[in-house]
Amino acid sequence: MIGKEKLKLLVVDDDPDVVDMLSAYLSGHDMEITTAENGAEALKRLKEKEFELVISDVMMPEMNGIELLKRMSSEHPDVAIIMLTSMDETKLATQAMQSGAFDYILKPVEFSQLNISISNAVTKQRLIQENRAYKETLERMVKEQRDVIQQQRSQLLQSDKLSSLGMLISGVCHEINNPLAFINSNLQLLELYFGNLKNAMDEYAREHPDYRLKKMTMEEAAQNIKRMLDDSLQGANSIKGIVSDIMGFSRKESDERRAFCVNDCIRKTLHMARFILKNKVAVQAGFGPDPLEALGQPQKMGQVFMNLFHNAAYAMRDRPASTLTITTRKEPISGGHGERIFIEVKDNGAGIPKEVMERIFDPYFTTKPSGEGTGLGLSISRNIVEDHGGAMSVESELNKGASFIITLPVHKD
Ligand SMILES: Nc1ncnc2c1ncn2[C@@H]1O[C@H](COP(=O)(O)OP(=O)(O)OP(=O)(O)O)[C@@H](O)[C@H]1O
Ligand SMILES: [Mg+2]
Q: Ligand 1, atom 20: nearest CA belongs to which residue?
């Protein structure tokens, strides 16, 4: 009847002889006994210490056993109770059983019967506790799964929103393309005409050396016009570049996988990222020999590099001498056969604190102020890399920057 741990038992009776007798017997059976004179005192003891079982008389002054039983069912539902009754109280005993007592034992107590009753009560109570623990574990697991599904669903929604935004942007770029083509060709024509006009202006200036165009000599005016034309042409070309980059970037890629050069993919993304890196970040690229071929969707991998460049630029925004170091190479697979592609994107920005490091790839985890970041960049990037059969990890030292490492399988024909 007695397990490895000492059973903690509370004996409640107003008759000191009964209490003494039960205590002596049960202590001898390796149980830890506490006693109380009535229901009210029993409730006090139950608050002070954990018990597995209560053996209580039914008839007691102050608070009787039935009242104690009722209070225990709401305040200490895990503790079993066995009632002690005399022959003439069997009605009360039935009432106790109806109120949730585990068993009742008639006085004078028959020890063999008490032993069986205690053993049964404890077994039942432990089963109930185990069951409850299983139920709680199960409920927690269901809740965790529900949260994961919820997160994945909103991640899907978010990427759906992003792709609609991408389509909208590429639509706008398409619309910009037509008028831009006019502007570009008109500017080129103007440049051509200006060559002739310049000759006429020079001749006029020779004949009228004192003539001023808004206080400028003809020579100065011609230089100004030429500079404005050059700037406009350069501006228009730059818009053309941006528009075609965006259209290329946001074009929907088919799910088909193809061989592509990782170095090329990074070069193109770097070109796109020049607006983010501006002139503030020095880029040091150490590319392994071309072609460094992987199999998959270069546009998606481009998205990964763009996220990394974006994060790096943000982490280095307030730093002097910001440097983004990109390294690619083939390296032997440790402990395995063959080679893999190694890519490192390293910055010398703020670095990543330990508590951020643990959650960095979690969807929606961001340390940016609200409205500035979705916290999806790295989680989407890691998914894309894993879809390519690769892995992505991060190393960082606080205040010394962060290094994101991607490995990809080498494409073999
Ligand atoms: N290079 C880095 N240096 C320091 N911290 C970084 C770096 N890259 C990511 N982090 C940390 O990881 C967090 C999560 O990055 P993630 O790209 O997933 O989302 P985000 O950049 O916050 O938001 P979004 O990508 O939508 O702009 C960042 O908020 C930042 O705290
Ligand atoms: Mg980001």
A: 375
